[in-house]
Amino acid sequence: MDPKLLWQRADTGSRISARFFTRRLSLRVLALLSICVVLYNVVYSTELRRRLEMNVQAPRHTGQPQHGTDTAELEDGPPSATCFGAELGHNGTEKATLVMLVRNSELHGALSSIRMVEDRFNRRFHYPWTFLNDKPFTDDFIKYTSGLASGPVEYAVIPEDDWSIPDHVNTTIMRAEMLRMAKQEIIYGGSLSYRHMCRFNSGFFYNQEVMRKYDWYWRVEPGIELYCDINYDPFTFMRENKKIYGFVISMYEFRDTITTLWDRTRQFLNHGDYNLCHFWSNFEIASLEFYRSEAYSRYFEFLDSTGGFFYERWGDAPVHSIGVGLFAPKDSIHHFADFGYSHPPCARCPQDDESHTSGRCVCSRNKNFDSDSYSCLPRWWKVNRGTGWI
Length: 390
Hints:
Keywords: Glycosyltransferase, Membrane, Transferase, Transmembrane, Transmembrane helix. This is (Perigord truffle) hypothetical protein. Belongs to the glycosyltransferase 15 family. This protein is α/β, with parallel strands linked by helices. The protein has a single domain, classed as Spore Coat Polysaccharide Biosynthesis Protein SpsA, Chain A (Alpha-Beta Complex). Helices cover 42% and strands 12% of the residues. Strands 1-4-3-2-5-10-7-11 form an eight-stranded mixed β-sheet. It has a three-stranded antiparallel β-sheet with strand order 6-12-13. The protein has a two-stranded antiparallel sheet with strand order 8-9. β2, α2 and β3 form a beta-alpha-beta unit. α2 runs parallel beside α3. The protein is globular and about 90 Å long. The N terminus and C terminus are likely disordered.
């Protein structure tokens, strides 16, 4: 036999054996990886289901259909979110909630806002979320929003009396005024739902059953942006510094929407003139006890009795601002100048270097409503130097 042929056969066999061994090893590795993936998915799915169930389960209150986790322990201690992501930071200890008035159709904007607030702030503190709606929340809304929250979540339907036209309002006059305002293209002048929203935020949100356990709230609206990390607890800051109301943007109100608001206010409590400035209330961090006070409650009840929320289009921003200006000490109002915030069409960005060089904020300092001619912040700075606000 030719030795060369034997050599060739031996080499061919070894190559076949090596290929066979490599193929078997690859199959074993793939099988092992598949088993790991399956185990990971089982464990992850179980943990995710557990967290969603903890977020969605909550007691139902009479007259307030709800879904969510039980936050009753907030009456006596810190929020019940301590089991979520404690390694990311300490948990908030104030009786406070992030609150959003939202419709089911605004789910995408709500998710965007929740993600923004969680990433910039709440992943460190795990404060509860409270969602309010004049209609029952859909299963999808509950499923997706609760999946993003790092703390307890509650969903409540607003009682009909808090979202309806009072008996003392003449609907014929109201609808005629709405038509007139719509023809004149006054912003939201023809919207009834906007009037309900403004009246609710002016005088009812803080007394909802689901809100009564809290002392503080941070109002969050769908579609907002936060440009900066918030590395401290603003609720604790407010309490420790005896603050009542916190804002980020201040501007002038549209005169045609509040034609008689100040006249009515002077009927209630004679007090100078009003310059139309207000704190933009789509962002507020404030004391719920202030709104529940006798002074503010009587003021809202008087305004509501005049029908101005429906005959005109009084906004909750000027009502809140006038109320705070009348009944809260000047030094109890705080401007969160370290917050970068956007609610279309307005935005503000912190102007100091450290906020940007540290990476805490990502926003353009050139796009800053504080310096806009329509901003009331220059008037606020004068307030801090001792002159009047309203």
